[in-house]
User: What shape does this take?
Amino acid sequence: MQLPDAEKAFDSLAKKIQADANKDFTLVGIHTGGVWLAERLHQALGIKQPLGTLDVAFYRDDFDKIGLHPQVKPSEIPFAVEGAHILLVDDVLQTGRTIRAAINELFDYGRPASISFAALVDRGGRELPIAAQYTGIMLELPADKMLELKCGKNGKLSFHLYDKSLPE
Amino acid sequence: MINRNPQLDENGVLQHLLTTEGLPASVLLHILDTAESFVGVTERDVKKIPLLRGKSIFNLFFEPSTRTRTTFEIAAKRLSADVFNLNIAVSAQSKGETLLDTVNNLSAMNADMFVVRHAQSGAAHLIAKHVQADIHVINAGDGSHAHPTQALLDMFTIRRYKRDFRNLRVAIIGDILHSRVARSQIHALTTLGVPEVRVIAPKTLLPKMVERLGVHVYHDMAKGLKDIDVLMMLRLQNERMKGANLPSPEEYFKYYGLTPEKLSLARRDAIVMHPGPMNRGVEIDSEVADGKQSVILPQVTFGIAVRMAVMSILAGNQV
Assistant: This one.
């Protein structure tokens, strides 16, 4: 299957956010792909507020099924969440469960004025009433495929597709 | 498999934390890495995450302890678990109930995890062998055998200040003979690749053949502290002072108490650790305990993050 160009998807996403640049966003990337994207957006949009990162492992709803994720990274929110307009950034939007976890985690830092959400890819398959305000591209994929964003040594982004049943 | 480590299941997944002995470096490092993320949680305004919501954790302390019990309680509460503290020294056992009967009764109350402190070496192992497969056991100190969470928080503290285990010289100083902390520290340090672990103590406070644990033995602080990066002090247990092991606290302090003068024999950037509670003026001078090189209070703070990591990893490792 021919996968779309992740760099082009990023340009499309950045443009859409840029059109709303009058908004005073504070960026928060979700580990790991969302952090790469948030770093790129932070630079591309010239945002002055420091960038936040979230690892939602402690807020996931599948802990009882699969336990703690093996590689948890520290969440870092180097700004006051209270009253901030936060733009959450993630690579792939599917069920919406990751975003649910991220929103819950953010509220443990304070009460933001607003949270909006930017996703590089929306592949459908929502299981929660969650939507992205900004989307790079839409992509229809079979449910048994897993889409992953990778970042090369040169910083170039690319998509990779896996069978869910097979180990990566 | 006959010699399987009782803490690991057949797939090598951690089910109980009973001792640092025999655990692979990957398991120890996974706990330390996970604890890094929990340090961030403990620095927030809301110091609580929903991970263990609805889980019941029983602190079974058959031996008195304030700090360890409290840090386990704080760790469990920050993970949103329900915590029950049983001070068993004054309850069921004094009425004649056996250890395993106590555990059976609490299991019937749907316990998910036991945190066990007991004066007998092996008590936590016994409980771990006895409980159903979905219950996890953490050893919070058994006799003079092991105290793995203390050793892990010590490893976490060392890594925070010294970064890499593989170029360090570490000295453990004091009553090695009776110390479960020292045993767990030695196993953790050697597993994590510390090239030189020394023990410094009078002969009467060293176990026989302690060298077989992979440590170098010193009886003299002046020699033992040379080039040391990390000093791990041990508590001199007052109850041992009256026996034949030691002449007097004053004499012990003279030879083994950590004073600024003795500390100056170690590397200039050496850190000083102590598992608490401290006997000031016996194993450590106040000037050192409160000095710039002391990381004794950070150890306590990191202890909560490390115990949160252990509890959440175990609770997530279901069979």
Remarks:
- Chain B has a mean pLDDT of 93.
- Chain B has two domains: 25-145+300-316, 148-297.
- Chain B touches chain A through 21 residues (CB under 8 Å).
